[in-house]
Specification:
By secondary structure, the chain is α/β, with parallel strands linked by helices. It has helices at about 5-15, 35-40, 65-75, 120-130, 170-185, 210-215, 220-235, 245-250, 270-280, 320-325, 400-410, 410-425, 455-465, 480-500, and strands at about 25-30, 50-55, 60, 80-85, 95-100, 105, 110, 130-135, 135, 150, 155-160, 260-265, 285, 290-295, 300, 305-310, 310-315, 335-345, 360-365, 370-375, 385-395, 435-445, 470. About 30% of the residues lie in helices and about 20% in strands. The longest helix is centred in the last third of the chain and has 21 residues, at about 480-500. It starts with a helix and ends with a helix.
Length: about 500
């Protein structure tokens, strides 16, 4: 006897001479599955002797936004005697992007909020890239309307802050929360870059964001959901695993006076392309640093085919990797990194909507994922039926180590089904729309600002650096956003220039 509804439908159709329409085939697979270099370094694999030696004042290790920002700053200041080593075949880190016959699309970071006036370095870069001119932002890249929507209680609402079904008490708590955030913003402790205001320690950093909400009588289910969604969105961690200081920073650090955010079909890959056009001559791809050692007054960085000897190192790769490259550096014990899944779904048409228009950012209430962005939303050409949805999933339901094991042990077919099942909450016909699902498994997407991160000795050691070795990634800040990566990269570049000129 058939034991499930699908089998029963098939049996009934056979009895009356009908055929069952097969489920639409969906192609796809995993992308960026080149972990060979990283695993070889982790496992201390032996490599052949370098074929050449290069003497150069500064070497940048890592071609994400931090490393590229360091390169941009040095080139801008006329210091051009350096190279940037990138392990992958393409630079970009979390700003990498893809392209198909429909659109470009992001594989990671997909927007930058309109920067505060404090973020002078971001504004300087964006002016150079033509995004800001005469105090006005290029309207093409300010997010078009509608910007955000939330699927709540069976229908879409405008905006991500819950509105449908709230009680008077829920609304009172949201108003009180907004007032507390205004008070925190006024202290100037919560700024971007965070180094401009963050204290060395804070009572808010001793507890989680969820604990802070509860301690302050914020009990609304909807407010707790928004807080949890926000920390998962920026930090890849639940509100229970995020420092209260970092949780408040998410809400209090931005002025919210200018419209935005800035976004592009390829996400922050737009910035990446512009930077690489300026800096390509310095970039060496497929050149993983496999060993870093101090030799007298010089640093030596070994790649599979070259030994670089330099006066200063800008280390713009994840901090947890360094002990595998330099055995004198102890393993990272108290800081953790969040695993993510980013998926790009090719659609032959948008799913059916019930009286609402797709927004740029589309979020489903109580979903374990972060929803999706419509990558064609910013396209200024005539819109077509076909599109690409970029779906984001921070695996925050368990410990990072357990989530990484699940991430790597679960096959594409299972992840594809989980993603489609998530989207079916809001789009019943999604399976009839999708023709391809490509999935990027990122085991260490971003560092987490867990309680205690402000005063964490390991993080403070990254801020200090050692003997012309400068940490440059957003790990130094303790959370990963574009402005922090840029700031830390430029700070390392400044220190490197001073360091090699002083020798």
């Amino acid at each position: 006897m058939p034991t499930n509804s699908h089998s029963r439908r098939a049996a009934c159709a056979a009895l009356i001479g009908m055929t069952v329409k097969a489920e639409r085939p969906i192609a796809g697979g995993f992308v960026f599955e080149s972990q060979d270099h990283g695993h070889a370094i982790r496992d201390h694999k032996s490599f052949p002797s370098p074929k050449q030696t290069v003497n150069i004042p500064v070497v940048i290790v890592g071609g994400g936004m931090a490393g590229l920002s360091a390169a941009w700053w040095m080139d801008k200041k006329g210091f051009k005697d350096f190279v940037l080593l990138e392990m992958e075949k393409e630079a970009g880190g979390n700003s990498r992007y893809g392209q198909n016959e429909i659109s470009a699309y992001p594989w990671g970071a997909h927007y930058v909020p309109v920067p505060n006036t404090d973020a002078v370095l971001v504004r300087e870069l964006f002016t150079e890239l033509g995004l800001l001119a005469g105090g006005k932002w290029d309207e093409r890249w300010l997010c078009h309307s509608p910007q955000e929507r939330l699927f709540l209680h069976g229908r879409w609402q405008e905006g991500i802050e819950p509105d449908i079904g709230l009680t008077a008490e829920d609304r009172r708590q949201f108003k009180a929360f907004d007032e507390r955030i205004r008070e925190f913003r006024a202290t100037r402790q919560f700024r971007i870059p965070m180094a401009l205001g963050a204290p060395a320690d804070s009572p808010l950093d001793k507890l989680s964001f969820r604990q802070w909400l509860e301690n302050n009588a914020f009990k609304s289910e909807y407010l707790h959901w928004l807080a949890d969604y926000s920390t998962r969105d920026d930090y890849g961690a639940s509100s229970a695993d995020t420092s209260a200081w970092a949780g408040i920073h998410y809400f209090a650090a931005r002025d919210h006076e200018e419209k935005g955010p800035l976004t592009w079909p390829e996400g922050n890959g737009w910035i990446l392309r512009k930077l690489l056009a300026k800096l390509d001559k310095y970039v060496r791809t497929n050149q993983p640093a496999i060993q870093i050692t101090k030799a007298g007054t010089k640093w030596e960085i070994r790649t599979p085919d070259t030994l670089y000897k330099c006066g200063a190192v800008i280390y713009a790769a994840p901090a947890f990797l360094l002990p595998y490259l330099d055995p004198t550096v102890p393993p990272v014990k108290s800081m953790v990194w969040s695993p993510w899944i980013v998926s790009n779904l090719t659609l032959d048409r948008m799913p059916e909507e019930k009286g609402s228009e797709p927004a740029w950012d589309n979020v489903i209430y109580r979903s374990p994922t972060l929803g999706y962005v419509v990558s064609t939303h910013q396209n200024i050409q005539m819109q077509t039926k076909r599109t690409v949805l970029t779906h984001y999933w921070a695996l925050s339901h368990t410990t990072p180590a357990q989530a990484r094991r699940e991430l790597l042990s679960t096959g594409w077919q299972t992840w594809k089904e989980r993603i489609l099942a998530d989207l079916e909450r809001a789009h019943r016909d999604i399976r009839q729309c999708v023709s391809r699902v490509d999935i990027f498994r990122n085991g260490h997407a971003m560092i987490r600002p867990t309680p205690g991160f402000l005063s964490n000795p390991e993080r403070k050691s990254w801020q200090t650096g050692r003997d012309r070795f400068y940490y440059a990634s957003a790990d130094v800040s303790g959370f990963s956003i574009f402005e922090e990566a840029q700031y830390r990269g430029i700070e390392a570049a400044r220190r490197s220039i001073r360091g090699v000129q002083a020798v």
